[in-house]
Each structure stands twice: as C-alpha cells, then as structure tokens.
Design a protein that fits this description.
The chain is α+β, with helices and mostly antiparallel strands. It is built from 6 helices and 8 strands, in the order E-E-H-H-H-H-E-H-E-E-E-E-H-E.
Amino acid sequence: GVINGQDLLPYADEHCGLGTYAHNGCGPIAIYNMMQLVGKPSSLKSISSELFWNNNMIAFGLLGLNPWSMADYFTAHGVEYVGSSSVYQLTSDISEGSIIVFTAMYSGGWHAMTALYTNNEYMVFNRYDNVSTHRSYSSLSDVYSEGWLVYGYRIYP
C-alpha cells in the first residue's frame, strides 16, 4: 500500500541517505507511492538507495531529494511522465486515475507528495509528516495554499 505520515513510520529514524525517512524521506516516499499506484511496486529501501547512488539526493540526503531529478528515476523504470513548474500544465486536462508527483515549497522547506486524481478530487498521500491517512483536495493548488509549487510530474499510468 501507500505510505502516509513519514514521521510516524516504525523505520522513521532509519537512514535515508545521510538523513532519515522522518526528516528527509519525502522524495523517495513520493516515488514509492507513485510506483504503488501505477502497479510497479518497489521497496522504499531500493528506491532510496538508487536515488542516493545516482546522486539524486541533495547533500547526500541531508536536504532530501532534488525535485528535478525524479525524472531520472521515472525514465530508468519506464514510467511515462511530463514535468512542469506550472500547475496549469500539470492539471489542465487531468483525467480520472492521473497521478501527479510534486514538490511544494513552504516557509519551513520543501516537501514532496503524490496525488491521485479520482472522483474530481486530488487524493494526496504523505501530505503531512505526522498524519497517517491521505487527504483530499478540490484543486492541486489547495494542497500547498501556504506555499508554492516547485516542480511536478504528471504520470501516465
């Protein structure tokens, strides 16, 4: 299944690069959730290790995953996507079952998440570090209303 509440996980304090899943693991978790949703499950540890060894993590994981490097993982694993820093481009012709993996900037830093578009809502996974369930929003912009989109990928399952 998908992961929510990265700070609540039994392995939250395990290494994710030189950081931990609780503090810096949102990028690998966003990719893990997307892979679950598209039916290509992979272990979180293998995703994190691949990202680390391919230099996709910032400061070896202390600052999390480089949002623009997610494309490297998607390409390597045959995931079709379109990337953009425009919410309009990511959502203008959204359809049932579309998936968006995105990073938003907040006053405290950035956070990567995965959203599944279903029933005219965005079901967002791992939105908060300490909430163990998904949250639904009527628009992608509502997810980060107190911040802004850094970059996102629309996945074609």
